[in-house]
């Protein structure tokens, strides 16, 4: 029996190259979930093209990156994490940011998000996590979206640096999010794959991807950050293009078969 994994593209709505890459990969069956920056500059324009595709469309909650020139500044990730664990995040500030993002998603997509995760995994942080779960209960009742939880998947053969980063991300809130989601009757993926340093080009990404597929277990989630172009010439944009090329390659089909894996939306019975 094949293992079902969610392959989730992050940052839809950040720019047109990212959106085009994810729409193309979703059409090829290479993505089964797309995480949307609802206040991103291209989200509203491209949401209608995402809506009919056979993917879960999620809200990628953002508290660290001002996505438009006229947007109010947001704290750096380190500052946000420190303030979250120090109990210094203002509940009204969190609620206002969440409400704007949920409203924008629903206005563009015409429906609630299928799931919730966080840009740079901020949805799991203390303070934000509690306010998010309260919003989901108030807004959607018992039929709420599923949640991405970040406990690291199996790390057999994963380089030390990548394995360490995966464990750090999980340590910032995965256990608490999973526990509280279960209490509220919300589904989550099993474990998270796809963590690395966003560098190394196509060859290194292909090697890592094969390793993640080898480690995958049923209902794991593999995150990715593809884009079709790298117009700004930045290292991150080049790596996004490398991810797109690898995910679009016919070889991916072979790697999936060898590892007994198939790309799927999150099964209804997942916890």
UniProtKB/TrEMBL annotation:
Its cofactor is Mg(2+). Pfam families: YdjC. The keyword Hydrolase applies. Keywords: Carbohydrate metabolism, Hydrolase, Magnesium, Metal-binding. PANTHER family: CARBOHYDRATE DEACETYLASE, YDJC DEACETYLASE FAMILY MEMBER. This is ChbG/HpnK family deacetylase.
């Amino acid at each position: 029996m094949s293992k079902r994994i969610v392959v989730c593209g992050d940052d839809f709505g950040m720019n047109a190259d990212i959106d085009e890459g994810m729409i193309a990969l979703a059409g090829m069956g290479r993505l089964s979930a797309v995480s949307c920056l609802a206040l991103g500059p291209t989200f509203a324009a491209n949401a209608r093209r995402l809506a009919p595709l056979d993917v879960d469309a999620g809200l990628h909650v953002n508290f660290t990156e001002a996505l438009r020139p006229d947007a109010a500044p947001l704290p750096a990730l380190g500052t946000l994490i420190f303030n979250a664990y120090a109990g210094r995040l203002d509940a009204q500030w969190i609620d206002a940011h969440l409400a704007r993002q949920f409203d924008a998603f629903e206005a563009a997509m015409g429906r609630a998000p299928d799931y919730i995760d966080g840009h740079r995994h901020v949805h799991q942080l203390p303070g934000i996590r509690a306010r998010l779960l309260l919003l989901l209960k108030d807004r959607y009742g018992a039929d709420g979206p599923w949640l991405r939880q970040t406990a690291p998947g199996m790390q057999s053969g994963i380089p030390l640096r990548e394995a360490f980063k995966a464990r750090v991300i999980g340590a910032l809130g995965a256990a608490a999010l999973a526990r509280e989601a279960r209490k509220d009757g919300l589904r989550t993926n099993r474990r998270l794959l796809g963590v690395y340093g966003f560098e190394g080009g196509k060859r290194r990404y292909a090697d890592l991807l094969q390793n993640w597929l080898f480690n995958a277990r049923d209902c794991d989630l593999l995150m990715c950050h593809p884009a079709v172009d790298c117009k700004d010439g930045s290292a991150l944009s080049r790596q996004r293009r490398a991810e797109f090329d690898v995910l679009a390659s016919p070889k991916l089909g072979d790697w999936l078969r060898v590892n007994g894996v198939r790309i799927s939306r999150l099964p209804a019975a997942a916890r």
